[in-house]
Design a protein that fits this description.
It is a single chain. Helices cover 29% and strands 25% of the residues. The chain contains 6 helices and 11 strands. The strands form 3 sheets. A 5-stranded mixed sheet has the order 3-2-1-5-4, covered by helices on one side. The protein has a 4-stranded antiparallel sheet with strand order 6-7-8-9. Helix 5 (147-154) crosses helix 6. The protein is globular and about 45 Å long. The chain binds aspartic acid (ASP). Aspartic acid is lined by residues 84-86, 104, 106-107, 116-118, 124, 136-139.
Amino acid sequence: DALIADGTTVQFEAVAAVRRVKNTIRLARLVMTETNNCFFVADGADQLADKLGIPLIANVELITDKELAQFRERAKAAQTRKGTGTVGAVAIDAQGRLAAATSTGGIPDKKKGRVGDSPIFGAGTYANPDAAASATGQGENIMRFFLCKEAADRACHLAAPEAVVRAMDFLVQHIPLPEAGIILIDAQGNLGATHTTNAMPIAWVDEDGEIGASMTMRGWA
Ligand code: ASP
């Protein structure tokens, strides 16, 4: 699943339940520039990728040896795995224009056809002229409460670090252990990040090209 959003125009393009595309965010980007639609799913999204020149791969190529071994271990012990592997990005340009993007393989052991929060505008990804946000974690919890839109709304009158904490507090009021994380950038270029997951690796680059990174940034605990 993937979604890319332009905060200036408040436009998004998304794909979900894609099976044969390696970098789904590239497909979402092409939906933005090459079609008049916003959201493609499943076979239709794969077919569109093919039509737009993105090479289709066999779904099995997306399975890593490590994931397969872990899956087999879990199956033997009838366990499920927690934890996720989403990539989210928020950005501001020199003109103050905001954008957000998220792509994900979804949650471990997800069922065929299951779609999470990432490609749902306002839930797992959101951008408007005031803020851009991307979320990670258990999508079923995030999409019920439109976590990214909640954080962006708060960023209209709060600094980015506080806006994400308040949005997460709101989620926690409804779901005590939501397994969620969020990153946000506001129109002044301030960053906010918080998570209820054990860790959330974050990296950023400032206007001078300085790179920073953190394994965890827990504004909420
Ligand atoms: N939020 C994603 C989903 O539920 C998973 C993740 O963040 O890793 O599909």
